[in-house]
């Protein structure tokens, strides 16, 4: 999560509330107050998605990372515990438990990761840990058969049109598969969206009827 503060709210266009792992990064070279404000802003923003999704099935996972461990401000209490490994006294187990209690709608990784972003070995280690989180999410959820069928259908549809509307999608699905449970489409769209396969903006009224079938097209040709 990054960008100037003025653009923070635009992030909800691309952020999913379910089946997500959010990597929240702060700069350990900053003073304690600024680090905590950064973390608080992003945790409130991520929590907002959960609160407004009444059918939430999986809490958003959040992993806290502090970069600049090698040049950390004294407030951070960063110590080198081994070659290329750091500990951060500011974000100890007690602090992380307090954060979890403050944001019960999120699932916070109890370990704060302090890294020197200039060292590829540390970043590779962090990448491995994040990948493990993502794999756990996938393994914890079995895709319902109706959603799997929908995924197969849209893989064909998106080759012809990268975006559509909910009503247009209903018509296409009925043409391709008359027995498709159209009454469940809203739930299916949210489920598949949260797998990261489509974009479906239920939380933005002006875009509520739009369905982006090809996320790569949206990222490259629309956002650029």
Description:
This protein is of the alpha/beta class and 224 residues long. Helix content is 42%, strand content 16%. It has helices at 32-51, 93-102, 120-140, 145-157, 166-176, 185-193, 215-223; strands spanning 21-27, 61-67, 78-82, 85-88, 107-108, 113-114, 163-165, 199-200, 210-212. The strands form three sheets. Strands 1, 2, 5 and 6 form a four-stranded parallel sheet that branches. The chain has a three-stranded antiparallel sheet with strand order 7-9-8. Strands 3-4 form a two-stranded antiparallel sheet. Helix 4 (145-157) crosses helix 6. The two termini are 18 Å apart. The relative contact order is 0.12. The model is unreliable at 51-56 (pLDDT under 50).
Binned, the helix content reads: 40-55%
Largest sheet: 4 strands, parallel
User: Strand content of the residues, in percent?
Assistant: 15-25%
User: Which structural class is indicated by helix and strand composition?
Assistant: alpha/beta
SSE pattern, N- to C-terminal: EHEEEHEEHHEHHEEH
Low-confidence stretches: 51-56
Rounded to the nearest angstrom, the radius of gyration is 20 Å
Number of strands: 9
Whole-number mean pLDDT: 80
Report the span from N to C terminus.
Answer: 18 Å
By DSSP (H or I, 4+ residues per run), the number of helices equals 7
Spatial shape: elongated
């Amino acid at each position: 999560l990054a960008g100037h503060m003025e653009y923070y709210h635009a992030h909800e266009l691309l952020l999913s509330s379910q089946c997500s792992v959010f990597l929240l990064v702060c700069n350990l070279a900053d003073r304690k107050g600024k680090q905590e404000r950064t973390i608080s802003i992003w945790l409130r923003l991520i929590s907002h998605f959960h609160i407004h999704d009444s059918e939430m099935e999986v809490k958003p996972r959040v992993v806290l990372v502090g970069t600049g461990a090698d040049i950390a401000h004294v407030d951070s209490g960063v110590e080198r515990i081994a070659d290329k490994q750091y500990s951060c006294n500011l974000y100890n187990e007690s602090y992380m438990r307090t954060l979890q209690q403050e944001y019960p709608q999120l699932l916070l990784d109890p370990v704060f990761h302090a890294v020197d972003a200039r060292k590829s070995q540390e970043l590779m280690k962090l990448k491995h840990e994040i990948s493990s989180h993502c794999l756990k999410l996938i393994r914890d959820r079995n895709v319902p058969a109706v959603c799997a069928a929908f995924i197969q259908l849209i893989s064909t549809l998106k080759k012809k049109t990268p975006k559509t509307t909910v009503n247009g999608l209903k018509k296409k699905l009925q043409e391709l598969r008359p027995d498709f449970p159209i009454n469940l489409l809203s739930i299916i769209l949210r489920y598949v969206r949260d797998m990261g396969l489509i974009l479906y903006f239920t939380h933005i009224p002006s875009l509520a009827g739009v369905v982006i079938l090809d996320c790569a097209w949206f990222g490259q040709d629309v956002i650029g």
